[in-house]
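Example 3.2
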Amino acid sequence: MRNWLIYTLIGVVLLIGGIVALANPFAATIAATQIVGIVFLLAGLIQMITVMRGGPDSHRWLNGFVGILFLLAGLSILINPLVGAAWMTLLLGLLFVVMGAMRLMLSFTFRDTGLFWLLLLTGAASILIGVLIFSNFFAAATTLLGLLVGLELLLDGIGLMAFGIAARRPRHVETPA
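Structure, written as tokens:
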């Protein structure tokens, strides 16, 4: 199978996955939350294995503590994915507000350049998104992650399909005379 076809097929699969996620953002949110829980659980297990296999050093207790935190976070998310989705939505909302505020403050250091308005507008937009998340937190907690996953899958699918189609076309190479 040619590489262009593989890229195109992966793009189609991602596009379909994005459409499915956007059609049911609640299910996509739960799925994304469970994946995060599994990743935390695996990270905690690997951290604990490295602590057990490692020799005595000053960071062993700290690494063990971090491993236990990862294990507990992963188990907590897997046991109750809605609570995990709420925590991740809270963190996303805070991230939007903080990053927006930082961009707003940064914009004033570029007051005399073309970046001023771009930073000012994107900072204000980020803060607005954060405020929207917090204004209807329950709806955001049950759908936001799924919508973001769906949008990302959709865009990645379109990008890979375009790349695959572009890679299919033969390139015109000029030979020296």
